[in-house]
From TrEMBL:
Name assigned to this protein: phosphoenolpyruvate carboxykinase (ATP)
Catalytic activity: oxaloacetate + ATP = phosphoenolpyruvate + ADP + CO2
Pfam family, any one: PEPCK_ATP
Organismal lineage: Eukaryota, Viridiplantae, Streptophyta, Embryophyta, Tracheophyta
Record carries keyword Nucleotide-binding: yes
Gene: LOC111499963
InterPro entries: PEP_carboxykinase_ATP, PEP_carboxykinase_C, PEP_carboxykinase_N
Pathway: Carbohydrate biosynthesis; gluconeogenesis
Source organism (scientific name): Cucurbita maxima
Length: 417
């Protein structure tokens, strides 16, 4: 923990009318001007103290509380996030940012926490949260991986999160976003790598995670990682990337490493976006390269076998379509995203070929609510000699083609049903 306290001295410089400041010692460590300077660069002026990376016990001592979980708060995103959010204009975000930084700067004690999306890796993304209260810091520290302050300062594309717990509930209305209720809202600017949590928005864990992922995707992708909306299933020595409908995932949650959507696939292996439960290991939490990827569909037309093997091109095609019993979900992802699914599909195809990762399609129709049965079906697909994917009749294939051709332009020849 680092606490910075600027105490106004009774002395001034001999040739200056400005007050002279000194650093005081506080809670086991000497402070420095470095953090204050870094915060000033983010529009935050420290009035009294800035507490850095407090432990949970220390946050509780400062008055942090475990807020009641919220969900479904308004999400406003500026950039190329196409799903799951409404837009916020550049002038609106700029005005909101100014009001939030001014508000936080008016608070005596400021709280700062450094973390990362993805465990230690060249493909992870560093994040710094700046808040006017300890409760949002507590919530944030429980979902992000640990990192060092030095890593934040040396990262070329760190994200900045502002949490204004005590800002006026009407701030959204004053900048033209409309009344969002008393609980607050989430706003993000992908181009500026900034996220703003107003009011109790920090309690909307799912909304916060989804928006952090949307902000992180371009950075992860540029660093050679694939931000995928998959879950990790570890069975013995096998590490499986599982793509499935959300209801299927929730029923399988007890068998998964984490029910949170999102992993980073890279040449180093696979790592979850966010912390696993309440653990935070000292070393890298990176799983080995996947033994397989499994795409789960739910189709009652009897044209898709219970389990079949896919070629890399077929896996990429079915990844783009995300078929769920007559409906299609692009790239198995309904939340906000800043990555073109087609570009992600192309990169996935290359990764499957380069790392020679086998792929399977599993039809969970009839057992969607039986998580154990789905896991058993997935495990059997890995251990048995599963035949290549084939369907009976052409109606389903035509529906796939209609969705894919309308959604994506100039599909590569390697992509096939």
């Amino acid at each position: 923990m680092i606490a910075i306290s600027l105490a106004r001295s009774a002395f001034s410089g001999p040739n200056s009318s400005q007050p002279f400041f000194r650093l005081s010692r506080h809670s086991r460590s000497w402070s420095s001007y470095g953090l204050n300077s870094a915060l000033a660069g983010k529009g935050i002026l420290v009035q009294d103290q800035a507490f850095l990376n407090l432990k949970s016990t220390e946050l509780f001592q400062k008055g942090a509380t475990l807020a009641e979980p919220l969900s479904g708060l308004p999400i406003h995103v500026r950039g190329h996030a196409l799903r799951g959010s409404s837009e916020i204009s550049k002038p609106q975000f700029t005005k909101l940012l100014k009001q939030v930084t001014s508000h936080i700067s008016s608070i005596s004690n400021i709280y700062v926490h450094d973390g990362a999306i993805g465990s230690r890796s060249k493909c992870n993304v560093k994040i710094r949260m700046i808040s006017d209260g300890p409760s949002s810091i507590l919530a944030f520290s429980n979902i992000v991986w640990e990192t060092t302050t030095r890593a934040i300062s040396h990262d070329s594309c760190p994200l900045t999160v502002y949490a204004a717990e005590s800002i006026s509930p009407g701030v959204g209305n004053t900048i033209g976003l409309g009344a969002g209720g008393d609980n607050g809202f989430i706003a993000a600017d992908i181009e500026r790598s900034m996220l703003i949590l107003c009011g109790k928005a920090f309690s909307d864990t799912n909304g916060t995670k989804e928006t952090l992922v949307a902000l992180s995707e371009p950075v992860i992708f540029a660093r050679g990682g694939l931000p995928l909306p998959a879950r990790l299933l570890v069975s013995g020595d096998s590490v499986v990337l599982l793509f499935a409908p959300e209801d299927v995932i929730q029923n399988c949650a007890a068998f998964l490493v984490s029910k949170d959507a999102g992993v980073v696939l890279s040449s180093e292996g696979v790592m979850p976006f966010f912390r696993i439960g309440n653990t935070n290991t000292n070393g890298p939490h990176i799983f080995k390269s996947p033994s397989a990827i499994v795409l789960v569909t739910s189709d009652d037309s009897r044209t898709i076998p219970s389990a079949s093997k896919l070629s890399p091109g077929q896996a990429a095609y079915h990844f783009l379509a995300g078929h769920q019993n007559g409906k299609f979900v692009a790239a198995f992802h309904k939340g906000p995203s800043s990555i073109d699914p087609l570009e992600l599909g192309k990169a996935l195809l290359c990764m499957l070929k380069e790392q020679q990762i086998p792929s399977f399609l599993v039809n969970a129709k009839g057992i969607e609510s039986a998580g154990k049965d789905i896991v058993t079906l997935v495990e059997s697909a890995l251990s048995m000699n599963i035949p290549p994917f084939q369907t009976e009749g052409g109606e389903l294939k035509r529906r796939y083609k209609s969705f894919v051709s309308e959604k994506y332009q100039q599909l590569p020849e390697d992509f096939s049903f």
